[in-house]
Design goal:
Elements: E1 4-7, H1 13-22, E2 24-27, H2 36-43, E3 48-51, H3 59-64, E4 71-74, H4 84-89, E5 94-95, H5 102-117, H6 120-128, E6 148-152, H7 156-167, E7 171-175, H8 182-185, E8 189-191, H9 194-197
Parallel strand pairs: 1-2, 1-3, 3-4, 4-5, 6-7, 7-8
């Protein structure tokens, strides 16, 4: 008999295949954000829950949660949507995915910086509207090299952004609860607070 798992979303094909192969999956259709009452109803009789950051598990949820639930896993890096003290009080272990999105987030940060610096949206609009004109004023933008980049928090994501921005010749400044060691920070400049870093 397969363990029953309450699932609140749909995931990548490989994950879905494993879920269906190894568990008796319970899911509300169509997929949508569930309120606290609906989450409690879905969890009733389940051995485990597989949730997302959209699902808020507060103290009231754990107070009324089915005693059948033994573990909860969230498809997220953060845990701010789960009342961890209440989960611990009920002896419910919480699984999550720390660091899994650091590279993807850093790449998106670089995409946004490059897009803004090189006025990519304006250029794309000209191309899509077929109004590109070589005689018109060029969309030049500016280069990232030599620019200063301030990073608020040098955890996994901050370090991944710094690594990529350094390759573009940017000067990295950061603030963090503690100064990083030289082998991690490289040539980055540490600031004790955001207000100390901002004037740069």
């Amino acid at each position: 008999m397969k363990p029953k798992v309450a699932v609140t979303s749909r995931f990548l094909p490989a994950v879905e295949e494993r879920l269906l192969r190894e568990f008796d999956v319970r899911r509300t259709e169509p997929i949508r954000a569930l309120n606290s009452g609906e989450l409690l109803e879905l969890a009733e009789g389940a051995d485990a829950m597989f949730i997302t950051p959209m699902d808020r598990l507060d103290a009231a949820f754990f107070e009324h949660m089915s005693k059948s639930v033994k573990v909860i896993a969230t498809y997220s890096v953060g845990l701010d949507h789960i009342d961890l003290k209440s989960a611990a009080a009920k002896h419910i272990p919480i699984g999550y995915t720390p660091g899994v999105n650091a590279d993807a987030t850093a790449e998106i940060a670089m995409l946004l910086m490059l897009g803004a610096a090189r006025r990519a949206y304006e250029g794309q609009q000209l191309v899509r509207s077929q109004s590109w004109n070589s005689a018109a004023q060029p969309i030049l933008g500016w280069q990232l090299s030599g620019k200063s980049l301030g990073i608020f928090g040098m955890g996994r994501i901050g370090q991944a952004v710094a690594k990529r921005a350094t390759a573009f010749g940017m000067q990295i400044h950061y603030t963090n609860p503690a100064e990083l060691t030289q082998d991690i920070a490289g040539n980055s400049t540490y600031h004790r607070s955001l207000f100390e870093m901002l004037p740069l």
